[in-house]
Design goal:
The protein is an alpha/beta fold. It has 3 domains: 157 residues, MoaB/Mog-like domain (Molybdenum Cofactor Biosythetic Enzyme, Chain A, 3-Layer(aba) Sandwich), CATH 3.40.980; 55 residues, Molybdopterin biosynthesis moea protein, domain 2; 87 residues, Molybdopterin biosynthesis moeA protein, domain 3. The protein contains 6 helices and 20 strands. The strands form 6 sheets. It has a 6-stranded mixed beta sheet, with no helix packed on it. Strands 16-13-17-20-19-18 form a 6-stranded mixed beta sheet, sandwiched between helices. A hairpin with a 7-residue loop joins β18 and β19. It starts with a helix and ends in a 5-residue tail after the last strand.
Amino acid sequence: MTSLDQIAAQVAGYDPNALPVAQAQEFIARLVPRVQAVESLAIRSALGRVLARDIVSPIDVPSHDNSAMDGYALRAADLAASGDTVISIAGTAFAGAQYGGTVGPGQGVRIMTGAVMPEGLDTVVPQEFTRTEADGRVVIPAGTVQAGDNRRLRGEDLARGESALKAGRIFTPADLGLMASLGQAEVPVFRRLRVAFFSTGDELRSIGEPLDEGCVYDSNRYTIWGMLSRLGVEVLDLGVVRDEPEALRAAFTQAAASADAVITSGGVSVGEADHTKQVMKALGEVLFWKIAMRPGRPMAIGRIGNGEQQAMLFGLPGNPV
């Protein structure tokens, strides 16, 4: 595992006492590993999740040549070289069923959108471009269609064995419909990132508690919760932790054991009563930065936990985040 100092050496111009935001982002990108665990979810539960593997189509889409229009299917060979084309109608082809009749030369079939193209027919003329004679024959004006018009070919949208969706893609409503069109009930996605967070400080009170003199309500935790929820991660709110070494150690240990990342609010600035930084250093490998921005200058970054179960640590200032 690459140490924090080794990562810092890879960031050009790294200065922990005046670190530009862009360099902080580069450091974090090098530090944070990607979640590798994969789970299979019902497609309706996978919206917004990240695909873990390519989705390969098990079928052709469409599964057969079919009509893209309501109209009349015919052979392109029967289209007149000049002047109007007149065909007689041998029957009707409906969507969802194979046409069972035969179609002779000079004949066509009334066809509905999505219906399988009858054998031997290769062109569809939309019904609004035709007129029907008193004897039932259909007249197709010259130049209305060309060979193959308004016919969707088997596998035209997606061929069997072709990649339908690529790994790493965020699953969208359109993707949900695509998976359903392939008959796929489940999709492999990466497990959600788990993030634990808490605020520190003896002066903080939670909503609903009496506000003693010198105290303030903890607002940062709600902001952090909203930002994390919008990202779609699993959120573990550990509340407000007193600025006492044992309480902080217990909170950090619990957070690191149950989450991929831990975010704290408060305790990373210079202050005699803040034990947060000491506990962070005791539980893992941590650096303390001064970001080149105001407000929000102090920040802690690193890893905490044991060798098998380590979590990324992001220590944010309490006033403000």
